[in-house]
Write a structure and sequence with these properties.
Elements (H helix, E strand, L loop, with lengths): L9 H7 L4 E6 L1 H5 L1 H14 L2 E6 L3 H6 L6 H16 L4 E5 L7 H10 L6 E4 L1 H14 L13 E4 L3 H12 L4 E4 L5
Parallel strand pairs: 1-2, 1-3, 3-4, 5-6
Helix pairs in contact: 5-6
Length: about 180
């Protein structure tokens, strides 16, 4: 089964930045990954665009709890966005699947930090395109005539993941706990 990271969001940001500085909001694990850093260095060397990164510790947890508009979430977002804007970023890459749920707070934080409008890159579309390419390449794309099923796997709490699916996506998959995907 192909697993796709959020790195594809870096590429479209290069075409959209006017300041030549792109901010990347992501988890600390994403920002520490060798794959992310290699791609960031390659793109930066090829284009001259500077990527400034910000680990958003706790933001994904706020989203999973459904705290999409809370004061605590807004304060976290501002704390993470303001330094990127201060460093000249005019384009922000949402480097986590959770962050589009708080995109309005991110835009508001950028405006409060002095940059309006800011271009937001949601990696969802780029990740979906890459997944489709890999599925087609490996000949495992599901024909449109087959509906398919959804199962969720977590090494954390089944209850928490089920609640997140319900609250954020209005989906109710079977959630299997304790299984690690490889």
């Amino acid at each position: 089964m192909p697993v796709i990271g959020v790195e594809p969001g870096l590429k479209p940001s290069v075409a959209l930045t006017q300041s030549r500085t792109v901010g990347v909001l992501a988890t600390d694990r994403t920002l520490a990954s060798a794959k992310f850093n290699l791609l960031r260095e390659q793109i930066s060397a090829a284009t001259g665009v500077r990527f400034v990164t910000q680990a958003c510790i706790g933001l994904a947890n706020q989203v999973e709890k459904g705290e999409l508009q809370s004061t605590a979430t807004a304060l976290l977002v501002h704390r993470y966005v303001a330094p990127l804007i201060a460093q000249g970023a005019d384009t922000l890459v949402l480097g986590c699947t959770h962050y589009p749920f708080v995109q309005a707070l991110i835009e508001e934080a950028a405006m409060r930090a002095g940059k309006s409008p800011v271009t937001i890159i949601d990696t969802g579309a780029a990740v979906a395109r890459q997944l489709l390419r890999l599925l087609e390449q490996d000949g495992i794309q599901n024909p449109a005539s087959h509906a398919g099923t959804l199962e969720a796997f977590t090494t954390g709490s089944r209850t928490t993941l089920a609640a997140a699916f319900t609250t954020l996506l209005n989906l109710h998959p079977v959630v299997i706990e304790g299984r690690v995907m490889r």
